[in-house]
Amino acid sequence: MSDHSAASFDLTLTEEQRITRESIRRFVESHIKPNARAADEAAAAPADFYRQAGELGLGLMPIPEALGGAGMARAPISNVLNAEDLGHGDMALAIGALTPLSFINAVLDFASPAQQETYLTPLAMESLLATIALMEPKATFEATALQTTAVKVDGGYQLNGVKTLVPLATQSRFILVLAALEGDAASAGFVVESAAEGMTIQEESCMGLRPLELCRVELHDVVVPESARINLDMGRLLDLSSIGLAAVAVGCCQAVLDYVVPYVNDRTAFGEPISHRQSVAFMVADMATELEAMRLMVYRAASRAEQGLAFHENAYWCRTFCAEKAMEIGTNGIQLLGGHGFIREHPVEMWYRNLRAAALLQGAVVI
Amino acid sequence: MINLELPKKLQMAQQMSHQVAATVFRPIARKYDKIEHCDTPEELIPLGQMIKGMGGDGKKPDSQSEGRASDAVNNGANMTQVLTTAEMSWGCIGLMLSIPGLGLGNAAIQAVGTPQQKERFGGLHCAMAITEPGCGSDSAAVKTSAVLDGDEWVLNGEKIFATSASRGDAVVVWATLDKSKGKAAIKSFVVERGTPGMEIVRCEDKMGLRVSDTAAIVFTDCRIPKDNILGSAEIADTAEARKKAFGGVMQTFDNTRPPVAAMAYGVARAALEITKELLQKEGIEFRYEKSINNSTAIQAEVYRMEAELEAARLLILKAAWMADNKQPNSKQASMCKAKAGRVGNQITLKCVGLCGSLGYGEELLLEKFARDSKILDIFEGTQQIQQLIIARNVLGKSSSELK
């Protein structure tokens, strides 16, 4: 778009977005919702889940045709709509389903044509996974002050450090490791292949997002070739992932609301549905209001990104606001079910555990 | 196509209103806050004439008149109204409410009046009188009565909290034709200033919005022409029709809530802007560099307020956009009012706190904004009334189930 100022404020989906939304929602109903609880208990996605998710073609869409993809433009708005719909089914499986796309988007935004060919062609051709390793195991973690280091050595770079909360690392063919470049203020990305010498990957058990198979990745003198270095704009990567994760959280919060509404209408106390009490009804009203606001914050940030407008502040507000409100909705979801909410028979406790990640996970869903 | 940026035409309306707020309202905001009770401030009179000349006196332009295809997305009168209201509120809400010709009564006449009534009353500054000493949020409980006697209605009762009633040319009064018939018997009537039997008994001394007059009115056998009733004089007789009749009256609030939400947004943005300037003077930078947990406490406070403000703004725009595109927006109108009302008040108060004596003192406007903002979470439906409307909507409950 050349002239942004001519376009009307609009919240209507395009025809294409509507059609995609239908197919994603069908997938969520058939492949995600029925399996979410079992996947949480097993701390693993259902067998064959990532091949099936791959068939949705989300990762294929933006890969250039020459590399075997569909050659569509980068589409942050479509990505957040998909993230929201997938998140409505299950946050962990949603993030998992979007993990390869996150890697692909990062490569598309920051890598050279030659690098794109190297890394994207195999992802387009085969059902392979790829992921991003950003976070590090430390309180006060700040993505702009990484402790993982990359040192220039003969023929490439040597990586050292510990990465945490890396989705699907054990299954990924490529891991985009973000590291501080020695002697350089900027950070860079390094694509490490799964069999790299010196890299150990171990699954981490967390409070939630258990089916996402979050991993700790340790790098001891891992050497990658010069060609594996991707110069990236860390700010953009973080912003896109803030919006993406918030979109997944919007979906999950909608699931919480959709679950508590019939519950508080059916549950009776003192001779009438508990929803007839203002203390209960007003909690529901506030959940619905904040959720609506979260969604609009996500849409605005994503639409600015899509239009090529500056979106750092929007992404920042989006993350700040959605992290806080998502957890509020998550905890109130349990509260409204009372003791039943605490029992694993109901999904609200799982959503509570998953939504906690909205405030801390970074780099996972690059839209 | 999803786009939450404003088109140029709306940006221009916004800029013009901002100009008025900055050059007309801000310089005299403190002065009139001190004067409190007065006639319409003289600085506002040319403004009222100008707005009237531009067709901005509550007469909404036909949204299809620009030759668009009817299925095109419309960014029209409702969006313009919330944006201009927000900008003027950034200057001073009390002064904005004192602009001649922009009364709530004007909106009611435009919404439900006949063409003749619009012709007769359209040029007047019309206030609205709903609240009574014994009924506020429960507007179905009005006691003021209207009895037809020959060619005239005879009104009796007492109204309070009528904005602009002492300065206005007329007041739109809610009264019941028959108290025993409940909501369906409530009608609205236009009473022109100077009508015998209508007496402004006092103007309230308020915490904020001081320059805006808030009148108490007593009607004692006040006789008005028969055709000063807005809408039909018939009382719906079936339960269904009764519900519909009152529902229609209440629906006018769907259109007035987003503008009040916009006032809350506007005043809060004003407070936050001044606060950021004062903090920047002290060397505090707002560059959104570190995540919120690694920012300083004061940066984090500001970032959170900005995020909440943006949330309120987007809810307001959505509600107005839905109205412009003929989508039912009762839930969204209440959502934006609830959200903006509460965060607007929280933000103005927080700003006073953050700025210390500069916030609390009268040298700057921060303390005034904090006084003004409180009413925005109360009038045009309190926070709790908005929550009720949202909850009924989300839960699928009637007003008899969820009271």
What does this structure look like?
The complex is a heterodimer of chains A (367) and B (403). Chain A has helices at 15-32, 36-42, 49-54, 76-89, 91-110, 113-125, 234-266, 278-306, 312-337, 339-342, 348-355, and strands at 129-133, 149-153, 156-166, 172-181, 187-193, 199-203, 215-225, 229-230, 268-269, 272-273. In chain A, α5 packs antiparallel against α7 (234-266). Chain A is globular, with a radius of gyration of 21 Å. Chain A has eleven helices and ten strands. In chain A, a hairpin with a 2-residue loop joins β9 and β10 (272-273). In chain A, 53% of the residues are buried. Chain A is an alpha+beta fold and 367 residues long. In chain A, strands 1, 2, 3, 4, 5, 6, 7 and 8 form an eight-stranded mixed sheet that branches. In chain A, strands 9-10 form a two-stranded antiparallel sheet. Chain B is an alpha+beta fold and 403 residues long. Chain B has helices spanning 8-35, 45-53, 77-91, 93-97, 104-112, 115-121, 239-281, 297-324, 330-355, 357-360, 366-373, 383-395; strands spanning 126-129, 145-149, 152-163, 170-176, 186-192, 198-203, 214-225, 229-230. In chain B, strands 1-4-5-8 form a four-stranded mixed sheet, with helices on one face. In chain B, strands 2-3-7-6 form a four-stranded antiparallel sheet, with no helix packed on it. In chain B, α3 packs across α7 (239-281), α7 runs parallel beside α9 and α8 (297-324) runs antiparallel to α9 (330-355). Chain B starts with 7 loop residues before the first helix and ends in an 8-residue tail after the last helix. The model of chain B is unreliable at 57-69 (pLDDT under 50). Classes of the chains: A alpha+beta (367), B alpha+beta (403).
